[in-house]
Amino acid sequence: MEILTEEVATLIVEETAKRTKSNINIMNFNGKIIASFDKSRIGSIHEGARQVLERGKTVILTQEDCEKLQGTQPGINLPIIFQDEIVGVIGITGDPKALLYVADLVKMSTELLLYQNYFTYELEGQIRSQELFIEELLKSNPSNSFVQYLTKQLNSNLLAYRKCIIINLEKQIFSRNSIVRTLTSKIDQSTFALAFTNHNRIVILASDESQKALDEKIVRIYHAFKSLKLAIRMASSLLFSSLNDFKKAYEECELVFMLNDQTQSLMSFEDVEEKTLLYQIESEIRERYKHRILSDLDSQSIETLKSFFKNDLNIAKTAKYLYIHRNTLLYRLEKCKMRTGLNPKKYSDAIKLQIALWC
Known about the structure:
Pfam families: Diacid_rec (PF05651), GGDEF_2 (PF17853), HTH_30 (PF13556). This is Transcriptional regulator. It is a single chain. The chain has three domains: 116 residues, Beta-Lactamase; 117 residues, Alpha-Beta Plaits (2-Layer Sandwich); 78 residues, PucR C-terminal helix-turn-helix domain (Arc Repressor Mutant, subunit A, Orthogonal Bundle), CATH 1.10.10.2840. 53% of the residues lie in helices and 17% in strands. The protein contains 14 helices and ten strands.
């Protein structure tokens, strides 16, 4: 990657010249002016810059010096340092004594901008490589050699316990780079891969040394997104060990979104696994069973049953959850028993009612 490009140099000149009210020149590693507030000087050789490149330090040019050096004007010329190497020179035209107080600030700002551009470029490249990795794993027949190449390219250390995570972001503005930076600040970046598969969906392959550690990592990922003030719904798959099972794990996450309560923002396949068994049965059979069991119940009775099962068939907890008196709850449950022939307080009947609700 070329660090000091003409585009970056032009941006530095424009922004710096506004604040210093001085002419600014940016020279490359050959001493050629690649950006200048004075457009007529672009393309010419700056001898003062060549002196900076030869000596490796700041060069101050007086009026007398400029009479001897081609293509120069009085001012200060400073080396632009990137990763301990001089990549160019920045020249500020004017009275050297008057410019001393701003010269170091201009140099520091220039070098910070170069670092920012470099790391943004590196981060974008990292994101794209991870997206290629995830895209390949989601194919019906992923290329093992390409997967191995990308794993090495990403310097990934995918541990034995693995899960797929899908994050759906509600329609909102977000920064891809901010998301990646936040995640990598909280989680070892070699143990996960991330892809922005469309405008509002993120897919993550996460791994760890144990199931407990991986589940804790998933919670940290969730809180990382919440710390960015993003509204999300997040689903995780069952554990898998082979990368060939990633596509199946992805499909498990999609089932979670389809079957779980829309109000929940953090969900797992374990939460809905029993429901997915029903969806392997023909919809007509499911609908017939549901109609036979629940057709005589009103919406209040349906919601009462859902709350009763959600609270583990506990009368006191359910009454408190629904903000109703215990006797009111008992009356509603008795009504359900009368209309369905099934007693919600009896384990075997409760299972039949729960299955009907899931259908």
